[in-house]
Structures are given as structure tokens and as C-alpha cells.
């Protein structure tokens, strides 16, 4: 039992090092809003879904999409520049689509994946290979407590250590993919740009950064119409939606409404 608990804690230490230390980025390259786009910041904060949501907000603030009927979005203009994720969503958007359906399309998933890989190379996210290695190393840790329970007898203190190791393994299993460098950068950006939480649509760049940094609270507070009418935070409705591009009878068809 002593050996099982000791091995579990040794594996936790190895995983902790692998989990928090990412691949080294370019030396001397400071990361900040000048180096990261809002979509990249959102990916760092909330993962792939947050990145896709921020890309769609980018299109909306740029006048390229508007909410349509039954919690969908549709094109109503052309994107001006923008991130790869935003452009991928604009290209994939056909007729009226719910944001979640749009996010599932291959072109959008590929753009989000490429952005994730970029942050992993910069040392801000744990790479997929390293994430798989971390989970592989965690699997034996989950066996420490059962081994201790089977051992019984005088092993009660070691059983407690094994249970603590299990709790640590669970925490590391569900931990966001951010490295220590990525977490520190996100904390600094939130401190430096706290005012973006109260930006309005008259300040699209600040508002987009606020969405990237703080997520759902900013969407609900500063973009309530778009968030509600587009279904940005909901699942796709079960009722059939318009699959064509005509938009006949759509109360939200004009841009800038």
C-alpha cells in the first residue's frame, strides 16, 4: 500500500510538471493583445466553443451577420478582415443556421483547431500529444485508492493519501488546457483590460475583447439582443429551420437592425 500511494503521488508530480509547462514559445516575445487576437484570447479562456462564439460576435460587430428567425444567424454583408475563425464561419454559413450547427462544420472546426495549435506552439496551451500523455499517466493514479482499500489493516493513513491522490488526479483531468504561462497571461489581460466588460457596440474592438476575456456575462449584459435572438448560448431548436438562402418573411433580414 505504501508503494501504491508513493507511485500515485510521483505520477501526480510528473503530470503537474507536464500539465503546467508548455512548449517554449519564441524567446523574448511578450504576449499581449498585440500578439493575440480576441479569438485567440477566447480560446485561451474558454476553449474551442468560446473561440467560435467570439468569432461569430466578430462577424456581427463587423456587420457581416445578423440574427435571423428561430435562433439562427444569416449573412447580411461582407467581413472586413477578421480572424481565421470568423472568416471560416462566414464561408460556412449558408442560409439560416444556429450557431452550434455552424460550429460543428468541418471548415470551422479546422480553423479553431489551427488556432489551438498556434497557441500550443507558443506555450500557452498544452499540446494535444501532451494532454493525451497526461491522461495516460493519470489512469494508474485512480487505482491507488482501490489498492489501499483491498490492503486494509494498518494501511488507513496511506489510504487517505491515496484518496487525496485520486482527488488531485480528478482535478488535473478536468483542468483547462492552459499552461502556467497561459494562465498568467490571461490574468494579466483581464486586469489590464477590465474596462472592456462595460464596452458598448459603439466601441466594437473593446467590446469584442471584453467578450473574449469575460465570456457569457458580457454577452448577456452588453449584447443581449444578438445573444438571445441568434441562440448563441443555446442548443439548436428541434423545429425545422429555413435551409435555403431566400430569407423570405424573416423579421431580422436587414443588417444593422
Structure commentary:
By secondary structure, the chain is mostly helical. It folds into 2 domains: 1-30 and 127-176, no CATH class; 45-125 and 180-233, no CATH class. It contains 12 helices and 2 strands, in the order ααββαααααααααα. Strands 1-2 form a two-stranded antiparallel sheet. Strand 1 and strand 2 form a beta hairpin. It starts with a helix and ends in a 27-residue tail after the last helix.
User: Strand content of the residues, in percent?
Assistant: under 5%
**Alpha-carbon distance between the two ends:** 67 Å
Average pLDDT taken over every residue: 81
Number of helices: 12
N-to-C order of helices and strands: HHEEHHHHHHHHHH
Number of strands: 2
Number of discrete domains:
2
Helicity, in percent?
A: 55-70%
Give me the side-by-side strand order of the main sheet. 1-2
What global shape is seen? elongated
Cα gyration radius (Å): 22 Å
Structural class: mainly alpha
Low-confidence residue ranges: 23-30, 241-253
Biggest sheet: strands, sense, closure?
A: 2 strands, antiparallel
List the helices and strands and how they pair.
Elements: H1 2-20, H2 38-61, E1 65-67, E2 73-75, H3 84-92, H4 99-103, H5 106-121, H6 128-141, H7 144-151, H8 156-174, H9 180-192, H10 204-214, H11 216-222, H12 224-230
Antiparallel strand pairs: 1-2
Helix pairs in contact: 1-6, 1-7, 1-8, 2-3, 2-5, 2-10, 3-5, 6-8, 7-8, 10-11, 11-12
Keywords:
2 domains, 2% strand, 257 residues
